[in-house]
TrEMBL record:
UniProt keyword annotation of Cell inner membrane present: yes
Pfam families listed in its UniProt record: CRCB (PF02537)
Protein name: Fluoride-specific ion channel FluC
Keywords of the record: Cell inner membrane, Cell membrane, Ion channel, Ion transport, Membrane, Metal-binding, Sodium, Transmembrane, Transmembrane helix, Transport
UniProt: Na(+) binding residues: G74, T77
Family per similarity comment: Belongs to the fluoride channel Fluc/FEX (TC 1.A.43) family.
Membrane topology note: Multi-pass membrane protein
Residue stretches spanning the membrane: 32-54, 66-84, 96-120
Protein source organism: Psychroserpens luteus
Function field: Fluoride-specific ion channel. Important for reducing fluoride concentration in the cell, thus reducing its toxicity.
Keyword Cell inner membrane: yes
Length: 121
């Protein structure tokens, strides 16, 4: 039960931060949803750091990893919003923004995880 509570608390904080970032950075007039993009790339970097530190020399307990990686990063990052925003871009015919947003999200997301793991080691 404690593990569920840790994921719940971390996820709540991550979701609130993502919501605030989206309110601050997302603007329908500028095309790319920068808030979701930032949340996903920053979350990827954070999960790389967190899991890298956890694997390095057991610096984080399994409960801390659940709170931070599964909970916070899981709530902070969002694939469903990313998918919906891509749907909106395609439906509006904005194929260039769709391509840039999708490719940049995947490439920078992967690189951020690898960079986080690298920094942790």
């Amino acid at each position: 039960m404690k593990q569920f509570l840790l994921v719940f608390i971390g996820g709540g904080f991550g979701s609130m931060l993502r919501f605030a970032l989206g309110k601050f950075l997302n603007n329908p007039q500028n095309g790319i949803p920068y808030g979701t993009f930032a949340a996903n790339v920053i979350g990827s970097l954070l999960i790389g750091l967190i899991l890298g530190f956890a694997a390095k020399n057991d610096t984080l307990s399994s409960n801390q990893t659940l709170l931070l990686a599964t909970g916070f990063c899981g709530g902070f990052t969002t694939f469903s919003t990313f998918a919906y925003e891509n749907h909106v871009l395609l439906k509006s015919g904005d194929f260039m923004t769709f391509a840039i947003y999708t490719i940049a999200s995947f490439v920078l997301g992967f690189l951020a995880v690898f960079f986080g793991m690298y920094l942790a080691k």
